[in-house]
């Protein structure tokens, strides 16, 4: 259910925003109205400008009514009240936002994405049922910025939608490194370091103590999974250690899965265990750790767990004592304690059942505000005058302000950005026409612009500014859990780690203060991997991997597309089969080279096309077998040149077909001089040389080389050819694609020309197959790792080659071998598919037109035949060319050792059979 809501709710949110906007556009009232109102826990304070806030005040909610449980989060409520305090403090500051009052609208996300999203939408559209604006429905948005949300998954969903409207969001607790993508989340900022820095900080701790053999546990959400990827990558790059195991803690707390994970921890030789998870996951895990009595582990916790009071209980401490962890930077907020002491239902909220203050009051004092008649037996009626100091709660314990300090900084960041935007001098502003942001027409994106430039120092002495990704300058405290003799737990500061733009991560540790979870109060390190249960591991050489017992190195398996595996055997067989078929077809065409089917389809280009197809099939063999330097350099060059030679032949064949039929029209004879045999060969040569130049430039500038890839699998080496230059590969494919597109377009234009001579339809179909294969190849190639990328490319080569071979030569071979009666001049030239028209005059005109075309084609085909015996030709009434002793065509001749032929339109059409010329159409015959 939760996954469904998380996946669909952003789309629903967009629809709700659109509906609310559309309702205001068509409203006759000078106000913007919400489409509907969410029932949420909330808290409001009016102001000239309003800031929104999203906090976890309750743990969960009940669907679908969105009613709330009694699992009240005291610390979450304190986070919300910290924002209220910061707003009131800013309103008292005459130097920050003078003459302007800040207000706030705070919502409870209840630890559920759908509730948090509802709150975000309410903030983006207005917390009230009707928010009065100017008459044209323009003016300041109800909320100019939002502080929150708590969880990374919530922030991702909310920022994905509200980022479309550039609504500034400043989170105090979302650490997922994915949120640093400012292209995807252009208006997201945060006052807590990202997990990318947290991971690097953890690796610094491992490096400091020499712990190189560790286990990793993460939660099953964006926070945990991004950490896992980042940790694995950074640990490998640092060369400081390796992971014994990586386990994902189930979100639903599946007991069987938890038992399996704890068993893995118990059986592993790794004695250092790192955890990136939430409190609820850690509680479920520790219950099982206690049940299986897994002791002797050094726990290292992320910021989400380091200060978690719910884990600091007596039955967990024998296992968690001595735990090290990093924690959010602790700060001090003067005046906050006095403000929290004055929190009362009648001061901070309206008298409604959804007021967070009322719910807080009922929770800590175990009473009800309901009228006396509705109070159940045994329940106490709240007066609202109870003293918070008398309640047994951590609400007023401000000795360890960490998330609250981030909330405080987030509110001030928005305030300083707003102050900067409103102090702009008219005519010198950063926006269009040097305009400035105006209080009455302030747009959220204008505040985003100012947030990117924010730079201030808190009263505690910490500098706050955001980098180009919206991340704050990173700093963490390093904490250690000390178990006191009286059973209490003390979490003490033993160092800090901070980020520097020039020096990387700076780690400071006070080792003499650290309490260890070992009898000697110190982690014993050993230096040999032969030692079982060691705290340290020695990395194996690049070509080796640890044995299953983790006590020695064994050679890694190698992987490449081999001739000896089933996939390689199948691809090799297909390549050789295609080569043999191409050779057989070439033999058939050579043997029947004097037949009309071969002559009529430009036999010379057909022979060259079949040779290029053989090369295409053979070049696929270069992708099979262990990559070598020469095969890496040759494979794409051979592939690119072979296919360009092939497509160039098809392109020229298509151009010749168009030229022939263009010449059959009045005045079109001159075009034929550009499509002689020499011009055809030259065009193919030039087009192929362009591809050869691309390949040479690629190999010279960034030659492809064999490489060992260990990124796909830890225990295997994948041998592959490094691309060298993505631009070179793209240019090679792009050039082939360009020629294929030109061939397709020209063939498509010629598809309706006379069928028996015209092969444009076959070329069109073959180019469709060719294009489909290579369009599908690109995403498949990109998403295929290792040897499968080579297999995808070989498959694309073979599929496109077979497609061209079958589409272009299959019908012709069928006629030559099985329908010899159609392999005649009569069958090639005749066109019996002309449909008779009801209008006889139109029919006669069509006959005359096609007769003229047939005469021209007949003569042109005979000239192209390059047969020395055909000096004198005849176009008979059956449109066949045959040798005659005499000719009766109108013409001029001059004898010579070599004869050039010419075709010109001297008359419009001729009357047959006596070849006297007239405009009256008759049954055509032609003697020559």
From TrEMBL:
<dbReference type="Pfam" id="PF01094">
    <property type="entry name" value="ANF_receptor"/>
</dbReference>
<dbReference type="InterPro" id="IPR004073">
    <property type="entry name" value="GPCR_3_vmron_rcpt_2"/>
</dbReference>
<feature type="transmembrane region" description="Helical">
    <location>
        <begin position="682"/>
        <end position="702"/>
    </location>
</feature>
<keyword id="KW-1003">Cell membrane</keyword>
<keyword id="KW-0472">Membrane</keyword>
<dbReference type="InterPro" id="IPR038550">
    <property type="entry name" value="GPCR_3_9-Cys_sf"/>
</dbReference>
<keyword id="KW-0325">Glycoprotein</keyword>
<keyword id="KW-0297">G-protein coupled receptor</keyword>
<dbReference type="GO" id="GO:0005886">
    <property type="term" value="C:plasma membrane"/>
</dbReference>
<feature type="domain" description="G-protein coupled receptors family 3 profile">
    <location>
        <begin position="567"/>
        <end position="832"/>
    </location>
</feature>
<protein>
    <recommendedName>
        <fullName>G-protein coupled receptors family 3 profile domain-containing protein</fullName>
    </recommendedName>
</protein>
<feature type="transmembrane region" description="Helical">
    <location>
        <begin position="605"/>
        <end position="625"/>
    </location>
</feature>
<feature type="transmembrane region" description="Helical">
    <location>
        <begin position="722"/>
        <end position="750"/>
    </location>
</feature>
<feature type="transmembrane region" description="Helical">
    <location>
        <begin position="637"/>
        <end position="661"/>
    </location>
</feature>
<keyword id="KW-0807">Transducer</keyword>
<dbReference type="InterPro" id="IPR001828">
    <property type="entry name" value="ANF_lig-bd_rcpt"/>
</dbReference>
<keyword id="KW-0675">Receptor</keyword>
<feature type="transmembrane region" description="Helical">
    <location>
        <begin position="794"/>
        <end position="817"/>
    </location>
</feature>
<feature type="transmembrane region" description="Helical">
    <location>
        <begin position="762"/>
        <end position="782"/>
    </location>
</feature>
<keyword id="KW-1133">Transmembrane helix</keyword>
<dbReference type="InterPro" id="IPR028082">
    <property type="entry name" value="Peripla_BP_I"/>
</dbReference>
<dbReference type="InterPro" id="IPR000068">
    <property type="entry name" value="GPCR_3_Ca_sens_rcpt-rel"/>
</dbReference>
<dbReference type="InterPro" id="IPR017978">
    <property type="entry name" value="GPCR_3_C"/>
</dbReference>
<feature type="signal peptide">
    <location>
        <begin position="1"/>
        <end position="24"/>
    </location>
</feature>
<dbReference type="InterPro" id="IPR000337">
    <property type="entry name" value="GPCR_3"/>
</dbReference>
<dbReference type="GO" id="GO:0004930">
    <property type="term" value="F:G protein-coupled receptor activity"/>
</dbReference>
<keyword id="KW-0732">Signal</keyword>
<feature type="transmembrane region" description="Helical">
    <location>
        <begin position="566"/>
        <end position="590"/>
    </location>
</feature>
<dbReference type="Pfam" id="PF00003">
    <property type="entry name" value="7tm_3"/>
</dbReference>
<dbReference type="InterPro" id="IPR017979">
    <property type="entry name" value="GPCR_3_CS"/>
</dbReference>
<keyword id="KW-0812">Transmembrane</keyword>
């Amino acid at each position: 259910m939760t996954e469904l809501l998380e996946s669909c709710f952003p789309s629903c949110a967009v629809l709700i925003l659109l509906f609310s906007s559309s309702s205001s556009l068509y409203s006759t009232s000078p106000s913007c109205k919400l489409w509907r109102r969410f029932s949420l826990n909330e808290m409001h304070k009016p102001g000239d400008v309003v800031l929104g806030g999203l906090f976890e005040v309750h743990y969960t909610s009940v669907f679908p009514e969105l009613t709330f449980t009694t699992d009240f989060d005291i610390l979450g409520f304190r986070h919300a009240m910290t924002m209220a305090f910061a707003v009131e403090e800013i309103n008292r500051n005459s130097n920050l936002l003078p003459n302007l009052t800040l207000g706030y609208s705070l919502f409870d996300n209840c630890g559920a994405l759908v509730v948090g999203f509802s709150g975000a939408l309410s903030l983006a559209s207005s917390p009230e049922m009707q928010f009065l604006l100017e008459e044209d429905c323009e003016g300041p948005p109800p909320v100019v910025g939002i502080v929150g949300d708590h969880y990374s998954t919530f922030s991702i969903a909310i920022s994905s939608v509200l980022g479309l409207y550039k609504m500034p969001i400043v989170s105090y607790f979302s650490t997922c490194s994915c949120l640093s993508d400012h292209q995807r989340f252009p208006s997201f900022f945060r006052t807590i370091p990202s997990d990318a820095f947290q991971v690097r900080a953890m690796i610094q701790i491992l490096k400091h103590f020499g712990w190189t053999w560790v286990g990793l546990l993460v939660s099953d959400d964006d926070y945990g999974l991004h950490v896992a990827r980042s940790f694995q990558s950074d640990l490998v790059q640092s060369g400081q250690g390796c992971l014994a195991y990586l386990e994902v803690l189930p979100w639903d707390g599946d007991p069987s899965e938890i038992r399996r994970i704890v068993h893995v921890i118990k059986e592993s030789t790794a004695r250092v265990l790192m955890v990136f998870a939430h409190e609820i996951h850690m509680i479920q895990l520790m219950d099982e750790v206690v049940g299986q009595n897994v002791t002797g582990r050094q726990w290292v916790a992320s910021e989400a767990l380091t200060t978690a009071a719910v884990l600091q209980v007596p039955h967990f401490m024998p296992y968690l004592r001595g735990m090290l962890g990093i924690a959010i930077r602790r700060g001090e907020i003067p005046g906050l304690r006095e403000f929290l002491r004055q929190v009362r239902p009648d001061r901070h909220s309206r008298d409604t059942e959804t007021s967070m203050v009322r719910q807080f009051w009922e929770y800590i004092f175990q009473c009800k505000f309901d009228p006396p008649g509705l109070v159940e037996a045994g329940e106490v009626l709240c007066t609202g005058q109870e003293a918070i100091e008398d309640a047994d709660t951590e609400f007023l314990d401000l000795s360890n302000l960490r998330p609250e300090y981030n909330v405080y900084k987030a509110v001030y960041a928005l305030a300083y950005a707003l102050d900067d935007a409103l102090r702009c001098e008219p005519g010198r502003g950063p926006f269009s026409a040097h305009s400035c942001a105006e209080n009455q027409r302030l747009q959220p994106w204008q505040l985003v612009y100012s947030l990117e430039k924010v730079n201030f120092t808190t009263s505690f002495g910490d500098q706050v500014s955001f980098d180009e990704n919206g991340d704050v300058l990173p700093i963490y405290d390093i904490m250690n859990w000390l178990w006191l003799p009286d059973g209490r737990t003390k979490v003490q500061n033993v160092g800090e780690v901070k980020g520097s733009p020039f020096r990387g991560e700076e780690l400071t540790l006070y080792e003499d203060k650290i309490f260890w979870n070992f009898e000697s109060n110190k982690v014993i390190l050993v230096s040999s991997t032969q030692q079982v249960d060691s705290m340290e591991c020695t990395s194996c050489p690049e070509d080796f991997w640890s044995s299953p017992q983790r006590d020695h190195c064994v050679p890694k398996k190698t992987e490449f597309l081999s001739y000896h595996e089933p996939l390689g055997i199948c691809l090799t067989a297909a390549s050789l089969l295609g080569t043999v078929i191409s050779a057989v077809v070439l033999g058939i065409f050579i043997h029947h080279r004097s037949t009309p089917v071969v002559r009529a389809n430009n036999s010379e280009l057909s022979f060259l096309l079949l040779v290029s197809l053989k090369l295409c099939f053979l070049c696929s063999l270069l992708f099979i077998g262990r990559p070598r330097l020469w095969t890496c350099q040759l494979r794409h060059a051979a592939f690119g040149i072979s296919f360009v030679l092939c497509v160039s032949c098809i392109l020229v064949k298509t151009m010749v077909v168009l030229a022939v039929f263009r010449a059959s029209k009045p005045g079109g004879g001159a075009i034929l001089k550009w499509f002689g045999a020499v011009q055809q060969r030259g065009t193919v040569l030039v087009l192929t040389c362009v591809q050869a130049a691309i390949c040479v430039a690629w190999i010279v500038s960034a030659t492809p080389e064999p490489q060992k890839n260990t990124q796909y699998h830890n225990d295997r080496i994948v041998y592959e050819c490094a691309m060298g230059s993505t631009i070179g590969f793209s240019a090679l494919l792009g050039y082939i694609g360009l020629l294929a597109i030109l061939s397709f377009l020209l063939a498509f234009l010629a598809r309706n020309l006379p069928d028996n001579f015209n092969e444009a339809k076959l070329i069109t179909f073959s180019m469709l197959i060719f294009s489909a294969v290579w369009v599908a190849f690109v995403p498949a190639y990109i998403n295929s790792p290792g040897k499968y990328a080579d297999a995808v490319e070989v498959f694309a080569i073979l599929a496109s080659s077979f497609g061209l071979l079958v589409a272009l030569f299959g019908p012709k071979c069928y006629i030559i071998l099985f329908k010899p009666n159609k392999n005649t001049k009569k069958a090639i030239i005749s066109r019996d598919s002309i449909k008779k028209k009801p209008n006889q005059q139109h029919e006669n005109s069509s006959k005359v037109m096609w007769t003229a075309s047939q005469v021209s084609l007949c003569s042109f085909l005979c000239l192209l035949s390059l047969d020395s015996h055909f000096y004198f030709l005849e176009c008979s009434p059956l449109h066949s060319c045959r040798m005659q002793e005499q000719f009766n065509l109108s013409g001029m001749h001059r004898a010579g050792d070599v004869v050039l032929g010419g075709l010109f339109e001297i008359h419009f059409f001729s009357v047959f059979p006596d070849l006297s010329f007239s405009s009256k159409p008759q049954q055509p015959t032609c003697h020559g």
